[in-house]
Design goal:
- The chain is an all-beta fold and 123 residues long.
- 0% of the residues lie in helices and 50% in strands.
- The protein is built from no helices and eleven strands.
- Strands 2, 4, 5, 6, 9, 10 and 11 form a seven-stranded mixed beta sheet that branches.
- β4 and β5 (46-52) form a beta hairpin.
């Protein structure tokens, strides 16, 4: 069984930066990909970014391209989301997830989820 724990959320002004971390624990950890999703108040959870575990291929939703960067440190079983040029529209609970399936942009393909970390961006 895999446990995912997010950290690094908080309050930031528009234009600021935050870095989210997601640490995986378990006897073995070998996902195909890890991803970040977010859920704003009153809205459904949406895909943000994903990265394949072995070769580091990345994928982003259009609204964060050029502002967010996903990267991982395999030896630490940790994935990060560097968020720059933050906007109020980025305010949400951010979740990390892991999948062994190949459809890494699809929420239903993910098997393991973290508890979530709150990101709030003020105007």
């Amino acid at each position: 069984q895999v446990q995912l724990v997010e950290s690094g959320g908080g309050l930031m002004q528009t234009g600021g930066s935050l870095r989210l971390s997601c640490a995986a624990s378990g006897r073995t950890f070998s996902p195909y990909a890890m991803g970040w999703f977010r859920q704003a108040p009153g809205k459904e959870r949406e895909f943000v970014a994903a990265i394949t575990w072995i070769d580091g291929t990345t994928s982003y939703t259009d609204s964060v391209k050029g502002r967010f960067t996903i990267f991982r440190v395999n030896a630490k079983n940790t994935v990060y989301l560097q968020m720059n040029s933050l906007k109020p529209e980025d305010t949400a609970v951010y979740y990390c997830a892991a999948t062994k399936k190949f459809d890494r942009r699809v929420e239903s393909s993910y098997d393991y989820w973290g508890q979530g970390t709150q990101v709030t961006v003020s105007s």
